[in-house]
Amino acid sequence: MKPWSWIPSLYFAQGLPNVIVVTLSIVLYKRLGLSNAEITLYTGWLHLPWVIKPLWSPVVEMLATKRWWIIITQIMTGAALAGVALVIPAPDATRYSLAFLWLVAFSSATHDIAADGFYMMALDERRQAFFVGWRNTFFRAAVLTGQGAVVMLAGLLEDHYALTLPGNKAIPAAWLAIFLLLATIILLLSLYHAIFLPRPPRDRSPERSPDFLSTFLLFFRTPGILPALAFLLLFRFAEAQLSKIASPFLLDEPGRGGLGMTTAGYGLAYGTVGLAALIVGGITGGMLLSRLGFRRCIWWMALAMNLPNLVYVYLSLARPASAWLISSCVAIEQFGYGFGFTAYTLFMILFSDGPRGTARYALCTGFMALGMMLPGMFSGWIQEQTGYPLFFLWIMLCTIPSFLVARVATRIVSPRD
User: What is the pTM of this model?
Assistant: First the structure.
């Protein structure tokens, strides 16, 4: 099978559960009336399966093939999303929906291990570098589909049900329908991959998989491990906090410092120009990396990833009413993110190169998730203490570690770049 027949769908299927757990849940709980501090704390814990997934990555190495794991975890994810849908109208919807979302996160984290290992087995090094921008693009396309088209549809359904149901039932009914739709999409993707995923000769269930302890020790004996961990934990330090607050900021009422966007308006901002900008940024970043290499691109990508956060400082101070102006600011930030994140992904691939690459890459993504989880959990509390304008100024200060770790990252992977 040609890479184009499976890379777009595989990384779309990887990104969709991620955006559901990490971002769509924020919108859901905002619409259900939770505070920013509650939202960031509760949804922050949902990152945990991605943090600890290296603990069971040897199981993925030992049992069956990566192809089998991809398909079975997509089925598990679809079933868990259906569970979320069914409990949303329940009296204790927050507790039970969080439990099912944790199952979504667990199956999605396991899917990540298998998909990333499959990617490295199915492609040679040149094509890995070329497609890294494309895989990030389709991953982020799924993310912006969840933030864009899905949220916009949720807003339309909220308005529809508000005309036929009591006010306190319209929002749960709309989101029940949304999660049933998402479950159906994931299950259809599992069927597609059962038919179209290739069967690389290297994707075999080994007779004996190395135990986790030896893999763990080998990872931490890798030359340059400490600066590599600093890069994994701190390159996205600002984004980890911004990503948790951007949605509440756009949806909050003007009296509380937000922009007062409707659910549908928020979805439109992320699903139109934001999506287009992200795709262009990801493709451009991947092509540049494949031509120039990591060392010559990382500084430009660090700048692209962090400086566009200034648009939120502007939005929080000016609080424009124009939907297209807001969307344009979102597009600037998304282009920078799509462009810059390709360097982060390539760093993990290069650093994981060698024996037991799948498990090593899983460890890298675990530390990436930890770097997103810890700052994000308390970002809501910081925002409530400072207000939106000061919070976004704080975000700009938090971009400094990204530039510091970018400097040391070039010394680790450039010999293999």
Answer: 0.77
